[in-house]
Each structure stands twice: as structure tokens, then as C-alpha cells.
Amino acid sequence: MLPAPSRPRPAAAGPRRPSTGTLRPPGSSTARAVRPRALGGSVAPGASAAPQDAAAKGPLIKEFGFRSGFGDHYQLGPLLGSGSFATVHVAVDRSTGERFAVKTLTKRFLGEYLEPLFAARVRHEVDVYRAMGQSLNVAHLEAAFEDDVAADLVLELCEGGTMWQRIRRGAYSEAAAARIVREVLRAVAQCHAKGVILRDVKPDNFLFLNDREDSPLKMVDFGLAQFCSPGDVLHDRAGTPFFVAPEVLKQSYSLPADVWSAGITAYQLLTGRFPWHNDPDIMEAQQAADADDAGRTGRAGGGMTRMTNKTLFRAIISSEFDYSWDPWPAHSPEAKDFVQSMLQRDPEQRPTAAQLLRHPWLARLDAPSAADGGGGGGGLEGAPLSDTLVQRLQRYGTYGRLKQIALREVASLMLQDGTTLQGLADAFSRLDPGGSGRVPFEVAAAELRDGGYDLSESEIRTLLLQFDLDRDGTIDLAEWVSALMDWAKVEKRQEWESWVHKVFDQFDADGSSRISNEELARVLCAASGDEELCIPDAVPAALRRVDADGDGYVSFEEFLAMLHTSEAEALELFPSRRIARGGRRTATPRGGSPAGGGGARAGGA
What we know:
The protein is an alpha+beta fold and 605 residues long. It has 23 helices and 15 strands.
């Protein structure tokens, strides 16, 4: 066995077009990155604080509580990329041969403690990845490791290159652009449903899983993401200048800022340029760049525009955007209306990402078949299970382990009470013809593999791990029901709160009317002795997600709120991956990517 290479130190980040740099909050631990002028700002009273602010007020820590022994589980492979904050390598699972990406973040210390801003950023990024779970629109977090030198985030590997690399080939067809924009908006809508604002939606942060033209698209890099509930207002400038919303420049913004950035991306996909290209100052800058390039090369045109942030920001705030030059006359009125609605300068007038998924321009993608892509209308909760199976598993994968275990216990109570299970028991029995009460992992995998879904082997494994809470290699009926049930309907039953209280009392072993750290540890680890699930950070991570009042316990009210399924978690936010009737699936080998894919990476460096 080859020894793992020694840990590299992060290298300085190079320029990434079409950006003039990344705006980062003041005090960011990535201060060595290129920073434009006029950075600064604060968080409004009562608004979400940046993770750095929270860390500065919290206790100092010596470690994150992640798993140990990265080298025992993975073989480090070739370098994929590096930046001022991290390096990204290929990592090969020693037991399965599956390929991942590992993002290595060299630890920064103040004495014997982790530097607070560094610790906040790493923990925050891991928490956001965990909140997004196993969505197929995100390059998911497989595991987090640490040793004395660094933290290693093992992520899904995407080998089809960035969206930006494909945009450079020229404008997309309208239909192709619509399919990609829908995946971008699904990712944004899922983040917003979890109270996460991305603050850096751009083509460089979306990767194709493989090099197929119809490859799935995955969001990566939560480095600037922030937990932000609807109505919260942020004031620190953050993002990539070409994609920031006007209100970010004015230092008063919230979730709609991500919709603007997605709108700039949609404009690029449809035209191959930015919407302010005909601004007089920018046209003058482009002409000067072309003349300079012609003087050096003897070729007309082709110069790279060198504009100041002041010019760019003025264009973002006040320039008249172009919707008349080619290729706009060839695009449909629906496409134009769609992009214009996203690029309204008043954030209050912008549709949400979830609303945009129902826009006629995207809805017509589903016209040939209700199961072709799983976007479309809002009636998916009543659709056949086979059409929504993958969507249900993704949604369940965003719940977090504590909620998943609690829902399994609620499902067990429903089974004891003989409650109607929305046809899920019949579906389970078809996979368990012998009536053993358990379905082997491989039987369920075959259902996904051969059931008309466009999924890689890696995605199949990841989705099915949501079922198997006790990691015994089989799926029982309670696990099946808890993962696939429409819990929003169950919440409307009069027995709902009684069921939840019984589960709460079961977890509250000492009868204190609150769940302590020790009780949480028993709940999270008793179902499985898996080292991955019983790490030191398991309980703190669960509390960060559930403990709303920060007292270090879970009250019944917090427990009940955790189990609530909101309208923001609709199935239409997730791709169904159903193959269109009459369509054909291109086989994807184990590991998630065909051989020869270029531009592989996952996560932001």
C-alpha cells in the first residue's frame, strides 16, 4: 500500500474569472484573499450574526470533535485545487475504492486553542453541509475528520467541470439553460428552506457530476453561507462582485440576494454575457481593452475588460439592463419574464426561489411527463411513490439524525396503533415477499438501480443510508415509513402531539421534562455503534440545530418544532431523477463519474 503523501500547506489563490475578487465579511480568516474597497458593515440588532461574531463570544476550543484516522479510511490522491483557506485532493475509500474529494483545512492556533475565527468558519461550514444532508443538488459531506494538523472534509467528487467552464463555450439553448437554472434554483430553495443564505451563487460554485451533456449539477462551497431566517437582515458585504445584489452593496439584505445572483447566472446562460454589457462606462472600458489587445496581438477585439469595482457596482445599482440585443429576440417571452423577475432591484418584488420553480418557463420542462424531472406543479405529495421515491429520500436526508430517529419512533407508535400508512406498508411488502419484516440493503438498491432513475452508484448508496438508521444492512418497516411518509399530513392528525410526547418521554429517561446531553448521546448512539455516528461532536451538533434558547437542553417545545415539516420543504424542491418515458439512461460507473472527466473538484478552496 502506498503511503499517503504528507499534508500540503494551502497555496495562495489565483484569480478566478469573471470575478474581480471575493467580498468577505470583515475579520474573515481568509483575509489574504483579494479584497475590493469599501468592505465593512455590521449585523442589525436582532438579525443573524456572522459565524465569526458568534465564535468570538463562545468558548475557546482545542478541537472540533470530528472523527479521527482519515488516513486509515482513505488514500490521498492527486491535487485538484488549492486556495488561501484549503486544498482539495482526490481521496479513495480504502475499503470500497470509491473516489471522493477531500478538502483539507490546515488548523490555525492561538496558543493551545484553535483560532476563533478559523474554528467558527470550519464548524459553520460543516453545520451547513449537515443541514443540507443528502440532497442530490449538493455535493454532500460524506464525513469530517481531524488530527493535530488539519481538518479533512470528505465530499462527493464531481468530475464534469464547473458551470462557468461550459458557459465559456457560448450561450446555451433556451431549453438547456432552463434545465440548468432549475437545478440552481432547487439548490437555492433547499438552502433557504433550511434558513441558509449562500451569498455566493455563481457558475464557479456549481459542478457537473460527470462530463455528460445532461450531467446532474451539484452546488459546492458553503464558505460564505450564513444561517439566516426570513426577515433577518445582514449588513456585511460578502460575495463575488459580478454576482452580488444591489442591496448587498447597500449593506442591508436577506435571502432575496441569492435570487438576484441566480438571475445573473441565468442571464449568462441565455446570452453568454452580463446584463450591463451595454452600460456606457463598461463599453468604454471594453473598447480600451480591445484596443490594447489589438496593439499587442494584432487581432481585433478579445481584450479582457479592466473595470474598477466602482464602475461595476454603479452598473449593478443603476445601469439599464439589456433585453433587446441578440440572442434575446430569439428567446421566448417566458424566458425574458423569468430573468427580469429575478433581476428586479427591489428585493421585495423578487419571487422566492421556490416560487420561481413554478414559473411557466420552468414548468414547461415537465410537459412531456409528470415524472420527467420532478419540477412542475405542487401536487407531488399525492403522486405515485415510484415517481417521488428519490425526492422523499432526499428530503428525509436533510432532517438530521435526531429528527430521523424520532420519526422512526413515531412510525413505530403508528404501527402499534394500526394507523393507515399512506400505502407505504404495501410498497414495503412487495420488497419483502417472504414477510420477514426486513428488506436487505441490496434489494432496495436494486429497486433504485432498475426502477427508472438516473442515479450513480454513489448516489444510490448515499440515499439508501437514510433508511438504515441502525446500520445493520437491512431496512425495517418503521425505517421505511419514517423516510417516505408525508409527515405534513400526519401532523394534522389529532394523535400527532400525543405520539411526539411519548417519543419525547422515551428520550427523556430521567423524567426531567427536558433532554440532556447524556440522554441525547444515548439516543444518537444507541441505535448504532458506528464510529462515524458517535463522534464527540454528535451531541453538540444536534444541539446547535435544535436548542433554540441555547440552554444546553432540548425542551418538548423545541422537540416538537424540530419534527415540524414546513411548506418550504415541498417535494418539488428536489429532483426526482425519473427517466422520461421513452428516455434512456447513460450508465455511470461506481464512484459517480465516467472515466476521463475533467475539472474535478468538490467544495471550495
